[in-house]
Every structure is written in C-alpha cells, then in structure tokens.
Amino acid sequence: MDTEAQPTTERDRSSRPAPGAAEGRSRFALPTRITDWLPGGRISLTLLICLVFLLLLNAFVVQPFQIPSGSMENGLRIGDRVLVNKLAYRFGAEPRRGDVVVFDGTGYFGNSDYIKRVVGVGGDHVVCCDKEGRIRVNGRSVDESTFLYPGDSPSAVDFDVRVPDGTLFVLGDHRSSSSDSRDHLGSPGGGMIPVTDVIGRADWIVWPYAHLTRLARSSAYARVPGAEGAHG
Q: Which of 21, 29, 59, 92 is the least crowded, having the fewest Cβ atoms under 10 Å away?
C-alpha cells in the first residue's frame, strides 16, 4: 500500500507552485482598478467624476448664462450671470406669460442665444397699445410698471398680432433698448419664438453676489384670460 500511495505524493509535490512563482504573476498582472490606470490615482478619479457630473448638469439640468446687453434692465444688468433651469419645460409644462426665458434665436433673431420675457403664448392676441399706452393681451390691459425700465413706455411701436400655437411673443424689459418680437414681425417666423427653441427659464441671478436673487414669474399677467376667452 505504501508503494501505491507514493505516486500520489509525488503528484502533490509537482502540483505545488515553485517558490516565488505566485509573486511573479502578481507582480506583472494587469491593474484591476481604475485608480491603477490613472496618474494621480484617487485624486484624478475624483476630479474626473466631478467633471463628468458638471457636464451632465450643464447639458440637462441647469446652465449658466451671461447677460450680454441692457435689453432686460433694470432687472438683469450687463454682465449678470443667471442660472437657466433646463428642466422647467421638459415634463409637460410650457412657458407662461411673465416667465423670463433663454432661447436659441438662430433663424429668427440671429445666430445667438437671447433672454426675454414672455408676453404672449400660443393663441394669444397681443396688441399695442390701449388708450393709456399699455399692452393688451386677449383684451385685457397689462400693467408692466413693476419691471419696465424707468422712463420707458410699453412700446413705441404699434402692433397687433395673433401668436400661433407652439410659439411665443417675447419682449425685453428695457423696451427702448431691446430687439425683440416687435422688431422681427416681418422676419421668418413673424417674430415668434418656437417653444422647442426655448433652452430654459431663468430662475436665479447668481453673480455678482450683490445681485443674488430669485427671478419669480411676474404677476402682471395673472388676470389675462386664456386665448379662448379673448375679446376686443
């Protein structure tokens, strides 16, 4: 029985790895963690994750936008930075009168992004002006004095438009210094902005810090009736 068991013992010995063999394999094995591949290890990985997060945030959630002109003064001044809520109109909600929106004006206003206030939505009848010089929407005069630039009238240009469905009629708050829907009535699209070209709603001024404030929807249009109830 001893002679029969001996070959088994020899097989067991031969199956054992030679001294240092395991160490040799581990020394030349490929890295198994991302941090092993990146110069800087965990610090680089953390920075990379933060960068990807910021890119996704900018693409789908919020986007900073710098005010390029005085067309929305005094509420928004040149150089102010606002945060644009890109989810505001992504789940069935649509722009409402009084919202301040950022949109792509390519093919309508010019090859750039713009920021204006929504005055009329699809189906609205927008007219300037009534006997007191105010804009009328669906037959109701609107008091815009809470956000109009001091000394400006609601409009020095008369207009009478019906806003097509799926579009917006937009104006700047500094009417005498704003190129908006009034100035493009004869352009492609008739000065209206497709809702699909709206990037988002400006919700916050975040810079400079002294201007930090939330941009709430103006209540000036709260009593304007729906398009179905338009009259006058």
A: 92
pLDDT, residue 10, reads 45
- State the average pLDDT over residues 134-153: 97
Question: Active-site residue among 15, 69, 86, 116?
Answer: 116
Global pTM value: 0.75
Task: Mark whether 71 is an active-site residue.
Answer: yes
* CATH numbers and ranges of domains, the chain: 2-55 (no CATH), 65-223 (2.10.109.10)
Q: What is the mean pLDDT of residues 23-34?
A: 47
Q: Mind listing the pLDDT tens digit for each residue in 176-190? A: 999 999 999 988 899
Catalytic residue among 71, 141, 178, 218: 71
Task: Determine the average pLDDT of the residues in 124-148.
Answer: 96
